[in-house]
Design a protein that fits this description.
This protein is mainly α. The protein is about 65% helix and about 5% strand. The chain contains 13 helices and two strands. Helix 12 (about 285-300) runs antiparallel to helix 13. The longest helix has about 35 residues, at about 40-75. It is elongated, with a radius of gyration of 25 Å.
């Protein structure tokens, strides 16, 4: 546990630093996969970035609301505060899919596949976030006498819940690091096998992370709210996400929701015919200008050389 890093006279909150590195990791992954790999046109890429920002906002808002709901049920009164990752995921997924569908015209009908491409970045970003949890001293595990036990320092929340010697905590499972390692591994698998599984990343993530989270919850020792039954709120949410992941992959394989699949196919055909608008610095549609030049050339108003010269000038400004 290292809540604050003291370096060169600066005091850097480690949780905030890890969160920042998580955002950077997502941005770098987005650039490598979408900008350089998928090579979306500039307008679609900018719109996708905007949708991603909306997705992050939805992630935080739903993480906050779900955590507040769990603790409100436990305490029997309205309580606000804290965040839970799985609750955020539940809100982020529909926000991203709807945002891509309605705000990125060229991706209409391909929202699941396009969102799946950036899932590795989401996984990598969350891995850094879980490291931040370890440094911050939250999301810790229960007591253990095994070789992986970690003692949290005096004054930490873990030490208050599980007091040991000299004010420090008893040895606890570092569930934050377990989860970070799992997500780093999942990220590597998605990158190594990207050519085969990239379009299914969303469903794979929903299943793989939820199964892992369901299991790791049995080792958790912090207070996460309460819901009906012997399972934790996160375990109930994990079950819902596993069902969602299975249904999503079946849908992509063409085994379920066939009417929706047919509708997506028609949307894709429409998207293929949707012209791409690329504006120059003066707000003029470059593609439209080239088409106008083609028409002038076809009508014999300008020569082939004049057309090629003007076209080259426009392309340089794009």
């Amino acid at each position: 546990m290292l809540p604050v890093l003291h370096i060169f006279g600066f005091h850097v909150p480690m949780y905030s630093l890890m969160t920042f590195l998580g955002v950077v990791a997502y941005a770098v992954t987005y650039y490598c996969i979408i900008e350089r790999g998928k090579k979306l046109d500039r307008v679609s890429s900018n719109r996708f970035i905007f949708v991603s920002i909306l997705g992050v906002i939805a992630l935080y808002v739903f993480a906050y609301l779900f955590n507040s709901l769990y603790h409100s049920i436990e305490q029997g009164e309205i309580v606000f505060g804290g965040i839970t990752w799985l609750g955020g995921v539940v809100g982020c997924i529909p926000a991203m899919l709807l945002g891509i569908h309605f705000l990125v015209p060229k991706a209409k009908g391909n929202a699941v596949e396009l969102f799946s491409l950036v899932i590795p970045g989401l996984v990598l970003g969350h891995a850094f976030g879980r490291m931040g949890c370890f440094f911050g001293g939250c999301c810790f595990g229960g007591v253990t006498d095994g070789p992986f036990g970690v003692v949290f320092p005096a004054g930490s929340h873990a030490a208050q819940m599980y007091p040991g010697e000299n004010g420090a905590s008893l040895p606890l499972y570092p569930t934050q690091l377990f989860e970070a390692c799992f997500e780093f591994l999942l990220f590597l698998i998605m990158i190594i096998f990207r050519k085969k599984i990239s379009k299914y990343n969303l469903g794979i993530y929903a299943i793989a992370y939820s199964v892992f989270r369901f299991c790791i919850e049995f080792l958790r020792g912090d207070d996460r709210g309460s819901l009906a039954g012997v399972l934790s709120p996160s375990q109930w949410t994990s079950i819902l996400l596993i069902i969602f992941g299975v249904l999503l992959i079946l849908f992509q394989k063409g085994f379920s929701f066939k009417k929706l699949l047919a509708k997506c196919e028609s949307w894709r055909e429409i998207a293929k015919k949707t012209p791409v608008t690329i504006m120059n610095k003066k707000g003029v549609d470059n593609v439209a200008m080239i088409r106008e030049l083609q028409q002038l050339r076809n009508e014999g108003i300008i020569t082939e050389e004049e057309f090629n010269s003007k076209k080259a000038d426009i392309l340089k400004r794009m």
